[in-house]
Amino acid sequence: MKELWLKQLSNNINNNIDLIKITEIKKKDHHQFLYKKKNIFFKVKIPVIFIKKIEKKNSKDPILLQFIFNRKELIQYKKYNKNPLNEKFIIPGMIHKYKNRILILLTGICAVHCRYCFRKNTKQVNSITICNWNKIINYIKKNFEINEIIFSGGDPLVLNDNKINFFINDINKISHIKILRIHTRIVCILPQRISKNLLKIFSKCKFHIVIVTHINHPNEISDELSEKIHFLKTMGITVLNQSVLLKNINDNHKILIKLSNNLFDIGIIPYYLHLLDKIEGSKHFYVSENKAKIIMKKILLSLSGFLVPKLTKDIYGGKNKKFIF
Ligand code: SF4
């Protein structure tokens, strides 16, 4: 029988017209969201169950704005391009920027399509091929400096349990790997993804697991998520969160303070707050570095240091992140 999270994943909305209908956006607000099909290559995607978190009739809802196509995406700007980080792959699907860790894009698929995603051009890619996976494993085996592997994507946890189990089993055999980090958005979108079977797979790992969620606004947090994070914590898994600073969504110290407090309440430590990566079609989400610093100063006055995420920025072609605050 199909697991609940898989059913939820396949029941999604994939165009603005239906999203406008289901969220009952008023006619006077429609114009900004209308488009011709041929103009949009990064399809709208949001599971119906997650749409329930959007306030009806509110065209400015902070969850809606992250996933609904906006006509502003069609405007071209200098400095906004298709690969804002200029990511280089040593083996298809693998990036090795830092000495101790490698990043593996297991899949290009996600549960949602975040309109600001800097990897939106990799979304056509399905799972990593076995041939490339074997090359990656051999690369890791020979490189003793690598002690951490990062599963990213897309969203690695959209892959089914058999695939996750297969990848984890191979890593389990490499004794110099101490940490597996999993970057995922689906945990917040469909908390049911943290199924009993997935927890069983995690329990077999010889290394420490760190899950990094991607949550931008307090409205994304649910009781269901809280329950699943509790299970992860009980198993000794570290759970961190990264957010992207987004105009008209979370570019306000009060929202970010609430986000940090609410994350901590359910057992998640705020980790990074990223400045937007300048992928084409995302300028309307951009918050300047100066404004970000002002927000951070206000946050510091109201939160204990361990609840303040690090403000970071990725540089085009850069070796590492730049810490701004
Ligand atoms: S979940 Fe992550 S990878 Fe997928 S569209 Fe959103 S930001 Fe991009």
Report on this structure:
The protein is α/β, with parallel strands linked by helices. It folds into two domains: 4-74, no CATH class; 94-323, TIM Barrel. It is 30% helix and 16% strand. The chain has eleven helices and eleven strands. It has helices spanning 4-10, 16-22, 48-51, 64-67, 130-142, 161-172, 186-189, 196-203, 223-234, 253-265, 289-302; strands spanning 12-13, 46-47, 94-98, 101-105, 148-152, 179-184, 208-214, 238-244, 269-274, 310-313, 322-323. A nine-stranded mixed β-sheet has the order 3-4-5-6-7-8-9-10-11. A two-stranded antiparallel ribbon has the order 1-2. Helix 10 links the parallel strand 8 (238-244) and strand 9 (269-274). The longest helix has 14 residues, at 289-302. The radius of gyration is 19 Å and the shape is globular. 36% of the residues are buried. The mean pLDDT is 95. The structure holds iron/sulfur cluster. Iron/sulfur cluster binds at residues 110, 112-114, 117, 119, 153-155, 185, 214.
